[in-house]
């Protein structure tokens, strides 16, 4: 299935009003989803336990007439007793290495019990279930860029496995509920994403660099800085999610930005935006992937062309947002 | 650490009496473990919900003074309230493709919640935790034979993923409890194992061939029969487990037989034992691994040399056992 560019692409923006429960609503991606869906006229129930989400993200919507918030750990159940849901979207999880390594058991649980609780809720409501998976399921990839058919190269017992294996498990149980219990499911694999509302202590490279640059500290580069990443601006991810909700496709779909940058190229962009002093080189962390880049052919065939914000423009937006908050 | 052959190797056979809880005690491997530990003077608490275990395996020990049985689904909790445990050994799971594909969600749960319940019980008792993992974590391997350092090639969304990903998750959460909560853990990766008390409807190749041969039916060979497997006799596995309990090593250890046979070579051995009529060739099942063979160097360095029963001898034992039961 390929959608010609001339054809208007369905998305939640044009759908009838939906009732959507989002786990991890106080997180970085979750909060942007809440904002988008509220702006489109949908009703949103946010759920978060603030293990890595931020109260300030809930505060943004607390007074909105179509927003409800439930403080709960979805690994222990989702205490929703309201009207019939159309979608359960599972975005709850620590997602940055410092956070998930601080909470390895909780991260494993939100991938297993959390995902299953979401699937059971969706099943009970006859709702769709939308899983936020990750490019981390590809691990340190031997295939580059990574198509969805690549099975990955993940260390099952390494220090990152609490996140990587939790997400692989989450995909497996989502497919099991789809195949054996008929739940209408979606799975996306999110590649590096950045933008406003990332936690200042997120620990990922763009947040680190921007904060270090704003503080006049040296930028910390791991290894020799030749490892590459692709960086997706948050709005581009949200657009992809909004369209994929409306496409009846059940296997994983990559969502990311195909432009690849080395860490040193990223340093240059930050350098052009904010004066900085120097680079400090540190050892590569354990099992850190050396390359990561999405193959987006499946996405293109399912939801058509979407615009990407350039890294330079996205960084500029993010820096302005972070300066305001600092 | 290498153990000279002359040195007696510690095992549960020479340890002081232990109190051991075994999940999956009514299963094939579980029931042989129960037998071994009871014969060595230990106290055993068996737990099973009979989703794939057999009541006849519990009946073997029901009257033993040092055996207690709890019928329970360990994914929902392990209702043990007795004296302090020395070991929790988690062997519960459907393990053959027809069984786990019939119960995909239950298989995922016993890998996640079941493993975690075992880890919590071990933690509460200050006991060791012993995880039965599997060579299936290697998937369809690109490295052959497979050392424990190989990260595997598993399809996270395939029809086998309910088992493979559940076991990878089980390893990840076992390591998380070891690292972050100090539980004394063991992980073994069990390669194809056969012997008395396999379920007649187990669906794996040796059981299938023996039953088909005994009934005079054609032996079903998938693909062209050139795919290889290594087959471990159950007693050899139990010996390895008994020794590894006593070795303070926390990362996964392969337990299997290094001798590799094609399916057609296996047919020949069955043919020599039981007259059969013919072979029926069928298509290879989805994601079926083409080769699988353990690298046993780590095992050798940890527990020293152990004898292997030859495939011919093991098959002969198994056929005699199955004929008795038929």
How would you characterize this protein structure?
Two copies of one chain form a homodimer. With 326 residues, chain A is of the alpha/beta class. Chain A has a domain at 19-194 and 232-257 and 295-308: 3-Layer(aba) Sandwich (Rossmann fold). Chain A has helices spanning 28-39, 55-59, 97-102, 104-125, 161-181, 205-215, 234-244, 263-273, 297-303, 311-325, and strands at residues 19-23, 43-48, 67-71, 87-90, 128-134, 185-190, 193-194, 219-222, 228-230, 232-233, 252-255, 260-262, 279-282. The first copy, chain A, has a seven-stranded parallel beta sheet with strand order 3-2-1-4-5-6-11, sandwiched between helices. In chain A, strand 5, helix 5 and strand 6 (185-190) form a beta-alpha-beta unit. In chain A, helix 6 runs parallel beside helix 8. The radius of gyration of chain A is 19 Å and the shape is globular. Chain A starts with 18 loop residues before the first strand and ends with a helix. Chain A binds chain B through residues 104-105, 108-109, 111-113, 116, 137, 139, 151-157, 159, 161-162, 164-166, 168-169, 171-173, 175-177, 179-181, 187, 251-252, and chain B through 104-105, 108-109, 111-113, 116, 137, 139, 151-157, 159, 161-162, 164-166, 168-169, 171-173, 175-177, 179-181, 187, 251-252.
